[in-house]
Automatic annotation (TrEMBL):
It is found in: Cytoplasm. It holds the Pfam family Vault_2. It comes from Paragonimus westermani. This is Major vault protein. MVP repeats lie at residues 59-119, 222-274. PANTHER family: MAJOR VAULT PROTEIN. It comes from the Eukaryota. Keywords: Cytoplasm, Ribonucleoprotein. GO terms for cellular component: cytoplasm; nucleus; ribonucleoprotein complex. Transmembrane segments: none annotated. Gene3D superfamilies: 2.30.30.560, 2.30.30.570, Major Vault Protein repeat. Residues 53-111, 117-153, 219-257 form the Major vault protein repeat domain.
Amino acid sequence: MVEGESVNAVVRIAPYEYIHITNLNTHVTQLVLGPRTYVCLKDERLVFGPTQMVTVTRMTYCIIKNPVMWDDSGAPIIDKSGQVKINLGDEEYRFHQDPFALYPGEQLTDTIKDLPVVAANCALRLRAVEEFLDAESVRHVAGEEWLFEGPGAITSTYWRSPFALTSSVSCYHLRYFSNPFCKENSWLIWLVHITFPSCTATYYPRKEVTIVGPEEAQIIEINSALCLKATRDCIDRNGNSRVFGEKWLVRTPGVYLVGAYEVLVETRKAYILTETVRIFISQHV
């Protein structure tokens, strides 16, 4: 059967399919789910379908335009004429669930997309497009930016030992540096232990937030530092207040993820001073 057919039409709806039927007298469109065989009355017309239900698998999501309104019991709200109510111009993000049908007026925007996955030492830069309260009761205002960071807790430890390591260090990143301040055969070992509760973190989008782009962490090695600059008044990762345009150095070796209101100016190397080497430092006013 084709759309628009009406007089005593028989519509065979397979499992996980649906149709939209419009009453020509009341101009109300209703949703009919399969599996069933539907016989149209004289004053009814098939306006959509049969078509497959929307299937959102794990690690995917879709965007529904003009979503239907639901009551507290989870049933669609029906107006006095018998038509389902929809939020015109609104959007709703739907994630993994059972296959569902689109009510009259609802539209599937674009295609079903994969959820963004953030690896360790990476992040997504997010920006609020409207004011909202997130799941942790934190209020975000329009234009605010922040980072959704990947998993991993990073701790750095310095260990000086003339002995060889005998235990397994598969979860450690080791770097050896000769230490001129110690006796012969002594070494300075930079031990960075990275604990990952999982390899990746999954971000679930929402209509109030847009993804600006991905961010990658910077590596701070021994005898080096990151020169950062504040793009607005903010609090840095160490809890220090920064004002717009202020610059500072981060010297702690390890992985550093530049904040939402920070920008990397340059990476600086340390100067090694000996008995025959000296430097002159002048202060610019």
